[in-house]
Design the sequence.
């Protein structure tokens, strides 16, 4: 990582710092793992006790955290510790290895393809006929770009990304290794003797400022478009089926799966291993916890969990009730035994109520 002085870090975060500003900081780490030359961070009272144990040279602290009178080391107060760390990581991170600007001798670029100024095309990259790669875009080794693909400016495609034919990608898009965009949608129809394949002739549109993790599959539409809205971030190992429409600024976490023709509104968050049934509209601002199965619609802004999905608070109540079921079974069994005893005692009495001899 790039070393910075404590004063340079404080200036970067637009916050004063106590202590020696000339001290050299060589990295960022957690409170318990930080070395004496590293800086750490604290964003929650839950970890405040670790402040006394840390060896960090200084600590970035969110203003809401209650600090002891003497923290024992320089403190940089910020409004949001996570955002501050993100900013600092950007400044200190080592550069990502990239191919140099220009075309590598081992790349194969069709004569009809257009490569923008300042693009960097690594070895074993293939760019098909009629495709366009925008200015400043980086294609790492082994990237495959099919025919008639459009890629905007300042994108970065990491090794072994596959972009199939007739796909449109906006500007400042990041796609990590092993992702495939534009495979055939999963479309078949039973014809009485076999699963007949339905041709998938549509396209995929990825809008500006999208980031897509490793080994993501985004299928082309049967016809029309599969689309991912601007600013959306997709984690590793996500499946997005044909004709899905993903709105802007969504978050889709690892191993989530969207069936065909799903529509996500603006700012939807899908937790890890969550699933959405085909043709479902997920309204703006809905948040789904991990392993949620969305099979029906809900009002905008709802927090969901469970299989099938329901309001998160309702799901918590039901889970709490389910934990009481074993005790309730024992109570019911005891009540049944008591009732049986009462019935036996009643049957042994005479009609006038006197006990049998």
Sequence:
């Amino acid at each position: 990582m790039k070393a910075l002085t404590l004063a340079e870090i404080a200036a970067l975060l637009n916050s004063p710092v106590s202590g020696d500003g000339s001290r050299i900081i060589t990295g960022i780490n957690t409170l318990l793992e930080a070395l004496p030359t590293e800086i750490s961070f604290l964003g929650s009272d839950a970890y405040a006790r670790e402040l006394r144990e840390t060896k960090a040279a200084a600590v970035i602290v969110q203003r809401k955290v209650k600090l002891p009178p003497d923290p024992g080391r320089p403190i940089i107060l910020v409004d949001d510790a996570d955002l501050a760390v993100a900013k600092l990581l950007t400044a200190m991170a080592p550069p990502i290895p990239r191919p140099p600007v220009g075309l590598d001798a081992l790349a194969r670029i069709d004569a009809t393809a257009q490569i923008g100024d300042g693009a960097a095309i690594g070895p074993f990259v293939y760019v098909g006929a009629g495709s366009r790669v925008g200015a400043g875009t980086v294609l790492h080794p082994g990237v495959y770009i099919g025919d008639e693909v459009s890629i905007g400016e300042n994108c970065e495609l990491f090794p072994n990304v596959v972009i199939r034919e007739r796909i449109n990608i906006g500007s400042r898009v990041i796609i990590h290794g092993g992702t495939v965009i534009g495979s055939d949608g999963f479309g078949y129809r039973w014809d009485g003797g076999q699963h007949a394949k339905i041709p998938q002739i549509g396209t995929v549109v990825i809008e500006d400022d999208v980031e897509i993790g490793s080994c993501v599959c985004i299928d082309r539409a049967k016809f029309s478009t599969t689309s991912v809205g601007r600013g959306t971030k997709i984690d590793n190992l996500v499946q997005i089926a044909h004709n899905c429409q993903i709105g802007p600024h969504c978050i889709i976490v690892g191993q989530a799966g969207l069936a065909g023709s799903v529509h996500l509104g603006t700012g939807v968050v899908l937790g890890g291993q969550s699933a959405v049934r085909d043709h479902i509209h997920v309204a703006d601002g809905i948040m789904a916890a991990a392993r949620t199965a969305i099979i029906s619609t809900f009002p905008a802004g709802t927090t969901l969990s469970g299989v099938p999905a329901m309001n998160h608070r309702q799901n918590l109540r039901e889970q709490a009730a389910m934990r009481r079921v074993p005790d309730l079974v024992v109570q019911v069994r005891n009540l049944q035994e008591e009732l049986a005893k009462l019935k036996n005692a009643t049957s042994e009495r005479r009609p006038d109520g006197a006990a049998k001899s």
